Amino acid sequence: MMLQTAGRRMKITQTFPWPIVRAYSTPARNPSFASWTDEHKAYFQQLLKPECVLTNTDDTEAYTVDWLKKYKANSSHQMVLKPKTTEQVSAILKYCNECNLPVVPQGGNTGLVGGSVPVYDEIVLSTNLMNSVISFDEVSGILVCEAGCILENLDNHVAKHGHMMPLDLGAKGTCQIGGNIATNAGGLRLLRYGSLHGTVLGIEAVLADGTVIDCLSTMRKDNTGYDLKQLFIGSEGTLGVVTKVSIFTPPRSLFKNVALLACEDFVSVQKAFVEAKKHLGEVLSAVEFMDRHSYYVLIETSGSNSDHDMEKLNEYLEDVMGSGVVVDGTVAQDEAQARKLFLIREDITVALSARGYVYKYDISLPIEQYYKVAEETRERLVSTDAKVVCYGHIGDCNVHLNVSTLEYDDQVFNALEPFIFEWTSKYRGSISAEHGIGRHKPEYLYMSKSGNAIKLMQQMKKMMDPKGILNPYKVLPETE
Amino acid sequence: MMLQTAGRRMKITQTFPWPIVRAYSTPARNPSFASWTDEHKAYFQQLLKPECVLTNTDDTEAYTVDWLKKYKANSSHQMVLKPKTTEQVSAILKYCNECNLPVVPQGGNTGLVGGSVPVYDEIVLSTNLMNSVISFDEVSGILVCEAGCILENLDNHVAKHGHMMPLDLGAKGTCQIGGNIATNAGGLRLLRYGSLHGTVLGIEAVLADGTVIDCLSTMRKDNTGYDLKQLFIGSEGTLGVVTKVSIFTPPRSLFKNVALLACEDFVSVQKAFVEAKKHLGEVLSAVEFMDRHSYYVLIETSGSNSDHDMEKLNEYLEDVMGSGVVVDGTVAQDEAQARKLFLIREDITVALSARGYVYKYDISLPIEQYYKVAEETRERLVSTDAKVVCYGHIGDCNVHLNVSTLEYDDQVFNALEPFIFEWTSKYRGSISAEHGIGRHKPEYLYMSKSGNAIKLMQQMKKMMDPKGILNPYKVLPETE
């Protein structure tokens, strides 16, 4: 079965050129890499169909710039390959490895750290045409599919059988499950259903030299040797290309309630969260925070019995409103209203982008520091036109700190970096909660990981991709 | 804070010698390994306190045989080291690596595949004395502790704050969290709370050369580089020694219901399971199967509202009993009764052991094949005195197939192996669902993992432990 592209992308008003190249030092092109030639092109055209090899700028452009238009390849010499099978992916990589041709694996290209676009003239390996569902087991809820399936399409597919994908994020209409796994996407449902490290049961991936690693187990329990699939989850396409996926999908909750609550300060926000866990227990499915003029908490429940869920929610609201923890609130009366409340949260990104330039940070912090980072950042920028907005998945201690200015400003940039990373590091937070490292943060990796850990990562990369052809210049800092 | 050993071990009636050595070929002792001498002993006595270095047979015996008494070290030259700190573990491994001394990391020694006892004269590195809780955060539910903490003690500790450990297994009174992680223990709560790959947030581990890898994050979301901690989860102490752990503990459910249901055939068992997921949704916390004269399903719910849970359970029971899927059933009226129902399940192991010898298999299978393996095994053994009993976590497709005989019998053994592994492999099941590979199954690893995958595992082992001193002869087949 083939799934159609839903094709929903947020409209982004930003246009080129952004001064990202100024802000982040681009590493020098690796001199050991070859640049693709007509001979290579002919090989690929013969391996794939000619229409699956793109080299005209008009055709390749969408693949060589990220959706926020912050990262663009520093070369006009671009090629995009669109394989349809694992065997084709394997043949492409084997050939590229032999010819020293660097490769960027790309899914829906919705990442925020420049991980899925070329830095120079790396060949883009797009999984767009690998979008078949292979199987779905209704008893166990286990879905097996190709890497290029779009998340929202998969969610709709399993919904027909009363199940849901264990992850949900703003880019769901465009992002692909292979990319989700390669970047260990988090999102809204992590609080309830856990991370992809737990829900992904199997992966088929192709290594840099074309070796196919088949770990496509469909078993929830499988302790047979090292759990190799974990290596590919979150390694951002630098250790292998994910081609197939087996994933556990939980039963779809029949009933959903959404409430938007206002608090007077951040201490009350924390209390509202703790009480939500107590009162709502097993039906709590999302706790989102946003500071739009005031402190807001968005609470979602989902469960199998509407009356039970509503009774739990009402008891919770009576408690937190009675005690003054929450000063105002609204409960969605139907699905349309519920969607509207969530859109307030999702629209923040769009509204900020419309204002001009946005500096985006995605960090995890202990709950005590969760909001302090916004306050301290605001103080640092008091003399500028910057607006500091903080929102995120508070249930997972994940803060999205967004700073918007009318236009890009070096002074603001220098006030933000490395300040925010250092601040996060000081409290043992994560400098990248869910967006990854990509091209944005390799130099800052040491702020969340120890020297020994980074060295081991580099050894692993060297072992699995000795020539470094897979997604070069990304994730890991260069070895000395 | 120090936690006391709960010291609960099941009484095992089996005594030595078991013919395990006959049944499984023991690999030859690695000739590149040294054997410890008085000089080494003096070094360790100076590094640790003298009472933390055991070499008398009376002292070491408990550490050199597994609890089922199936695996025993083939040497009387034994040493047990009991470090108290990560620094001591690091110094021990650095020294052993330099001196070519092999090491077996050991937690509670409750494993079932011989992974935690020496094969020859490997030095046992016991984490018994590393049993402090480092921190517990009540808002996020995140526990940080040393590897030697006993699972049940940790569960009691977080219970005081309204939380629970995300895993539960029969050996909880003896097994240690470090060993649970090293073996990726599954158990009863996996259905609801997922695997340790999802719930473990951070690990500190020591590599074979003494390098300390600090990935002790306490963040639920942390996408900074490769997720190294995953390597240690399930690698059975062959890649490093886990010294500290950070783990997410879910809120403890206030109310629990347990029902024991009888079905007439295995098709009805499957239906009872599917209906349980539909009716009980988010409060379903365990679905266990056992075939004791008939087909039984044990259902557990746990939730935050007693009335709601009971209403859901009653609706479920009305449905499955009304439709004839379930022909008989009992619901525990209080906690004591609930515990009793679970004990029926736990006692199967003890009852089988009491009969004589038990051949134990722990496999995952697609639900359609879940029970067929028991039926076909029974057919193969019809001419012997063997009893084939099948129970397990049906919610996770995990079968524990147990074959008991009055005494060990080569004919039975040869009828079982490799038959059961081949059968499992044919249906793409897992030849080790939750017990691991250890010393029992390295030769059969290829039945659940492809050649390319095993080769990559061997490369990883070579990279992280070039001399192979960590838990030798276990998990991976020998390289040619």
Automatic annotation (TrEMBL), chains A, B:
<keyword id="KW-0274">FAD</keyword>
<dbReference type="InterPro" id="IPR016169">
    <property type="entry name" value="FAD-bd_PCMH_sub2"/>
</dbReference>
<dbReference type="Pfam" id="PF01565">
    <property type="entry name" value="FAD_binding_4"/>
</dbReference>
<feature type="domain" description="FAD-binding PCMH-type">
    <location>
        <begin position="73"/>
        <end position="252"/>
    </location>
</feature>
<dbReference type="InterPro" id="IPR016164">
    <property type="entry name" value="FAD-linked_Oxase-like_C"/>
</dbReference>
<dbReference type="GO" id="GO:0016491">
    <property type="term" value="F:oxidoreductase activity"/>
</dbReference>
<dbReference type="InterPro" id="IPR016166">
    <property type="entry name" value="FAD-bd_PCMH"/>
</dbReference>
<keyword id="KW-0285">Flavoprotein</keyword>
<keyword id="KW-0560">Oxidoreductase</keyword>
<comment type="similarity">
    <text>Belongs to the FAD-binding oxidoreductase/transferase type 4 family.</text>
</comment>
<dbReference type="InterPro" id="IPR016167">
    <property type="entry name" value="FAD-bd_PCMH_sub1"/>
</dbReference>
<dbReference type="GO" id="GO:0071949">
    <property type="term" value="F:FAD binding"/>
</dbReference>
<protein>
    <recommendedName>
        <fullName>FAD-binding PCMH-type domain-containing protein</fullName>
    </recommendedName>
</protein>
<dbReference type="InterPro" id="IPR036318">
    <property type="entry name" value="FAD-bd_PCMH-like_sf"/>
</dbReference>
<dbReference type="InterPro" id="IPR016171">
    <property type="entry name" value="Vanillyl_alc_oxidase_C-sub2"/>
</dbReference>
<dbReference type="GO" id="GO:0005739">
    <property type="term" value="C:mitochondrion"/>
</dbReference>
<dbReference type="InterPro" id="IPR004113">
    <property type="entry name" value="FAD-bd_oxidored_4_C"/>
</dbReference>
<dbReference type="InterPro" id="IPR006094">
    <property type="entry name" value="Oxid_FAD_bind_N"/>
</dbReference>
<dbReference type="Pfam" id="PF02913">
    <property type="entry name" value="FAD-oxidase_C"/>
</dbReference>
<dbReference type="InterPro" id="IPR051264">
    <property type="entry name" value="FAD-oxidored/transferase_4"/>
</dbReference>
